[in-house]
Amino acid sequence: MSLNSQTPIRCDLLVIGAGSGGLSVAAGASQMGASVVLLEGHKMGGDCLNYGCVPSKALLASAKVAYGQSHAAAFGIADHAPLVDYAAAKAHVQNTIETIAPMDSPERFEGFGVRVIREFGAFISPTEVQAGDHIIRARRVVIATGSSPLVPPVPGLESVPYETNETLFDLRERPEHLLIIGGGPIGMEMAQAHIRLGCKVTVIEGAKALGRDDPEAAAIVLQALRSEGVEIAEDALAAEITGRGGAIEVKTKDGRSFAGSHLLMAVGRKSNVERLNLKAGGIAPSRTGIEVDASLRTSNKRVYAIGDVAGGLQFTHVAGYHAGVIIRSALFGLPSKAQELHIPRATYTDPELAQVGLTEAEARAQYGDRLELARFEFHHNDRALAELKTKGFIKVMVVKGRPVGATIVGHQAGELISLWSLALANRLKMSQIAAMVAPYPSIGEINKRVAGAYFSPRLFESQLVKRAVQFVQRWIP
After folding, report:
1. Which residue from 148, 227, 234, 347 has the least number of CB within 10 angstroms?
2. What is the dihedral of CA 139, 144, 145, 151, to 10 degrees?
3. Domain 157-268 classified CATH 3.50.50.60?
4. What is the DSSP letter of 184?
5. Which CATH number describes the domain made up of 3-44+105-149+270-332?
6. CB-side exposure of 469: number of CA atoms within 13 Å?
7. Considering the entire predicted model, what is its pTM?
8. Which CATH superfamily includes the segment(s) 345-460?
9. Is 330 helix (H, G, I), strand (E, B) or coil?
């Protein structure tokens, strides 16, 4: 029987890709009564579980323990040089993945009523997708195929062994000297993890390390990494790579040269669209993935694209957020648009760096003199003092009493930023943040204290307030 003569699988919703976004859509839609087919030709859980968020944070956790052993004297405990078993640290990474994996397994989603087909999907018409021997016709299709490491065509790279985030966590022999091309979040996180696990580390960045972030905040992170021994070379665009395993050399356009034993390429991500046959589906690509409107619809109005493949912010939590947008639109037919202002991002170095909404530079460009800044330093927080985590600050950009962005660098910045995402998503005022009560002593007090810093000049420097208080004290019994 030819493929074209097969009886197609029919469903309400077809989801292509079983990463964070695709799994959220499939589970939600199926449990709400839709018939759902889920396609995944590679690993369930996608990049986040297998190659990204989960393994990187597990490795950072091992590195944090190693660092703590050698930096304990300030707490009254003797420093000890850690005896690092790199293979065992990677086993911790693998155990973490395996512990979480059942939550993303085919069996779990089949339990929700989802039909899981372990094949890649490709459009054969605007209304049909082929996956292996199956042809699927769905009322709506969600493309959630994610992204992969971007490997630029640096001369010589094709003949030199290198790692990406998809192979690094399989490495069991500790690199003697890890060269990292790319000074973004992935590069800086892996730099700190490996320096703490006993490797030499050099980061080679073609522009500015952490260049997307607030420069003042990024400088604190970079200084911390340099103080731990990470060499960070900026304005160092790779021009040629030579060598073999154990002896690799990277030459830059300005004539510098860096030698190491291993190479990690961490220069960015590219959307996974190659297998999809978008043209057959009547779906327009974009420069960074798939072209979508504010509702995440593609040029084929039956088809949506979410997460990394939609070409916007490439974070797991964005894919999860997009899933909610899709559920509202595709299942209930209600208007639903994706917003970006309240989407936070975090780099999990030590100290952490987090941002939501506009940076100071962006806010100044947009609002000019209407912008006000509220700021609070970590070294004024009692819990931070107790834990010797005093490096950092929070900076909130405020317009007409409402926050439009927040930058946090310091201990638990990735946790603290959530409050400001809530504030931006719901258009809260600084007065509502100030009304919050935070437990003492906690790092979370920093969020309340920065709101207090915003109001302090209005209360303590205002002559009107002082006259009002004096009037009440004099005339009202």
Report:
1. 227
2. 140
3. yes
4. S
5. 3.50.50.60
6. 8
7. 0.93
8. FAD/NAD-linked reductase, C-terminal dimerisation domain (3.30.390.30)
9. helix
